[in-house]
Amino acid sequence: xxxxxxxxxxxVPAGGSLxxxxxxxxxxxxxxYMAWFRQAPxxxxxxxxxxxxxxxxxxxxxxxxxxxxxxxxxxxxLYLQMNSLQPDDTAMYYCAAGDRIVDGGTWTYEYDYWGQxxxxxxxx
Length: 124
Fold this sequence. Notes:
By secondary structure, the protein is mainly beta.
């Protein structure tokens, strides 16, 4: 059973920064594809960043250039560094772990494990 525990959320003014952390145990970061999602009230859940088992990363257009996803294997921790935060970044942020499968000739990510979430609030 994979357990994910997020931390690091909080309230910041626009333009500020936060670093979210997601702790787990064992070889989760070596074995699973990891990602950060967010969901604001009344909006669909959005994947903001992903990192594959080989370390390659991808970002949503809305955060590219401002957010950075990374892993620290020595600490079994996934990070999301968020800079130049804007009010539209306000949401509950979730860490997720899963696999990548081929679906109809394309890669598809399936995230089976989720943390409890950490709230990020950005004031204007």
